[in-house]
Amino acid sequence: MTMIIFGSNGRLGRSLSKEFPEALRPSHSEVDITDRESVFRYIEAHRPDVVFQGAAWVDVRGCEVDHKKAWEFNVEGTRNVVDAVESVNGGCYFVFPSTACVFHGDRGGYVETDVPNPINFYGVTKMIAEMIVARLPNHLIMRTDFVERAKWRYPGAFTDRYSTSVFADTLSRGIKRVMSEKKTGLLHLTGKSKISHYDLARITTPEVERMTLSDVDIPLPRDQSMKSVRGGDFLEVEMRA
After folding, report:
1. How many C-beta neighbours within 10 Å does residue 23 have?
2. Contact 63, 14 (CB under 8 A)
3. What is the average pLDDT across 92-98?
4. Burial, 238: exposed, middle or buried (Cβ in 10 Å; 0-12, 13-18, 19+)?
5. Assigned domain for 96 exists
6. DSSP 119-184
7. Contact assessment for residue 132 and residue 82, using Cβ atoms and an 8 Å cutoff
8. How do residues 20-59 score in pLDDT, each as one tens digit?
9. Is 182 inside a domain boundary?
10. Domain at 101, CATH number
11. What is the residue range of 61's domain?
């Protein structure tokens, strides 16, 4: 079986690669997903049975500033991978990690049957990419929310923004488990408990500073917590320090 992990150098991709050491992990220099010919050449050369399309531009502020780049990478890049896979192996198991940012964030507790309503352009691009992936018959779209098990990347963290985040290594083990069951369709793979970003940051970075959403000028979901109605606790991954 041939598996390809696109985005293997990203925060989730690095962790997931440890769970699938046998997978092909092309670097950006090998395959630029915005380069349609590059993607088709690579897919045609390796004819994968499983593809994890984790390559994305996840900089929310950047996506708000540069809509063109965000669309080319998150939408057209994903379209290129889907089209290439479809041309070579229409039955390929195609796994796509999405985000809680497809939801508005005004109430939280979102489940798979809730209608997306993103408030930022990053969320828009991921919502459209989900639609593209969904045309493949053997797809799995996983909406999730995660951070690295490392020092918080910013000096501050929001006390008034909430999620059901998990650490990337914990999430990767959950993804492997779900993939082993060959789950398909749409799935929320999420932590069991809602937590503020500040409390989440303090798990690895006790000295992180408090901040609120009023301190930034970009639209961010206030409560992007999610639940699953498709698998219950089996599919929910608990946050651990």
Report:
1. 18
2. no
3. 98
4. exposed
5. yes
6. SSHHHHHHHHHHHHHTTSTTEEEEEE-EE-SSS-SSSEEESS-EE--EEHHHHHHHHHHHHHTT--
7. yes
8. 999 999 999 999 999 999 999 999 999 999 999 999 999 9
9. yes
10. 3.40.50.720
11. 3-149+166-191+226-235
Q: How far, in Å, CA of 104 to CA of 110, rounded? A: 10
- Average pLDDT estimate for 94-121: 97
**Per-residue pLDDT reduced to its tens digit, 121-153:** 999 999 999 999 999 999 999 999 999 999 999
**pTM score:** 0.94
Asked whether residue 196 is domain-assigned, the answer is no
Rounded CA-CA distance 155/137 in Å is 43
Total number of residues shown for the chain: 241
Please tell me the distance from the alpha carbon of residue 104 to that of residue 119, in angstroms, as a whole number.
5
CA atoms within 13 A on the CB side of 96: 30
Beta-bridge partner residues of 185:
140
Which of 146-168 are b and which e, b meaning 16 or more Cβ less than 10 Å from the residue's Cβ?
bbeeeebeeebbbeebbbbbbbb
* Cβ neighbours for 188, distance < 8 A, ≥ 6 positions apart: 110, 111, 112, 142, 143, 144, 226, 227, 228, 230, 235
In angstroms, rounded to a whole number, what is the distance separating the alpha carbons of residues 78 and 136? 12
Domain count, the chain: 1
Scan for tokens 């497809």, then name that residue: 102
Element (H, E) at 50: strand 50-53
In a domain, 29, yes or no: yes
